[in-house]
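# nightly structure sweep
# worker-07 picked up a monomer target from the shared queue
# config: single-sequence mode, recycle default, output format = structure tokens
# input follows
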Amino acid sequence: MELVDQHTKKIMEGCKERARDAGLRFEDETLEYIVTNRDLIELTPKVMIPTLYDYWVHDVEVLKETGKYELYPANPYETVINTRPAISFYNDNNPDWMNVMIFYHVLAHIDFFQKNLYFQHTWDYDFTGQALSDKRMIAKLRSEKGRWLDYVIEFTRGLDNLVGYHYELSRFAYPDTAIRNKRVDYYFDVFLQSEKKVKISEYIKEIERYNECLKASKKTGEKEFFSDITKKYPEFEALYKKQYKKKTGRKIDLIQFLIEHSEFLKKEENQWMKPVMEVIRKTSIFFQPQIRTKIMNEGWASYWHEKLFLKDDRIKGHEVDFAKAHSGVASLPRVGLNPYALGLRLFQYIEELVDKGKYSVEFKRLLNSSDRKNFDKKTGKGMDFIFKLRQNYNDFLFINTFVDDDFVALHNLFVAGKRLNKNKMVWEYFVKSRNAKDYRQMLLDMLYHPPDIQVDLDRTKNGNLYLVHHFEGKPLVKDFISNTMLGIEYMWGNTVQLETSEVAAVPTSQAAAYVSGPTAGMKEEQKPREIKWESVLYTMKNRRLSRIVIRKI
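# output follows
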């Protein structure tokens, strides 16, 4: 792995100029590396973060992908990570014309990372630097604790989809000036006077330094002031959070609850586990927005690499090559989901919709198909509108708002069903529905949606931890319950209970069945039986899992 040469860097800088002229916004500093396919295979398990902590599962993934590559060789074009500065990796087989296309794609990704509000908790620090520090800490602990460190990592990673991402995001979406002032008040009124008991002269100097920082920059002055305090007094943050936690009753996720309340982890010999768990939690929160904006992010990048590449005079003579590469990335599959293709077409559809004034009540009230087809207000506001979407939406809002009847009809989209042909003993795919509501629901079902599991403080008694799964129509995957609760029991140090909902067992005779037909080989399935749910309680005690039914729902 090495930095791109000056010739390739010049191409990138030219792409930056054209991208900025088109409206994309991103920081000037970027790093571009040339990598081999083997480099990509080794980086992929670490989500392309070279400095991420080492873990045995990463090594297993490398072996698996290496074997797969030997059977099915492929050349990935690029990948880019949301760091400061943004880092991108390019295959060493890419010709110059392809790098022009790829650079536009990458710059659009960087624009999305640095402007979409769901990423705002990642804007103020360099994750690769933080990850390197965490990696060194974990490596040191591994040399001391051996396999026990990997147990803690594995048990915590079993919970890393339950992190309080939205709690973290809400601090930025709804900034509370009063809370920020409490931090200042705590420092001057409590920390300096009661904890440190500083001299009056030093106290006055701190007030003057605080005012100077605010004069220098109202936006970042306070942040810089407390950054210096953290260096001078490393214990300040912990003491403030302890004080703040008592007064605010803030919401915390399961990993945080274990770190703060587990009697097992409070023991002196187990204190080392807490920073390891916090590393897993921070890493998960950092990557949460990427999985929640996959369709928008890839669609935005595909939209801009197509738009800018075709206007770039440096690619003359390679239009056909571009068409082949682009179609491979952005073709709509008949079955399944291609986030690049869906996101690209949605952005194009929305831009045209707003340009013609169709995103309006006036247009929605039209019933005549001819009037709807010829409706065109020529607003010219489509581009501004999709930039606002890029800033404020995630995949759920994007799909739920804009995948409508016109979009589904425009691209001839449908929901595919799958059935077994017993005569031929093969699976058959068929058009199950062309309804926009059904297609939209299919897409929403494919989105990342981790379960909502919270600690029930009222029932967490006598050392037992009581967890409640807030049921949203999808049961937990039973295969994961045992191992996950085993890990929680280990880190909690006592019995763990989980209340959840599952499908009630029914007699076999009531189950839906397939019926063979004399000609088609298969008739439609019988009417699905009504699903009945029951509330169940799992208990993990002394590494043994038990299950009881609490009530019928």
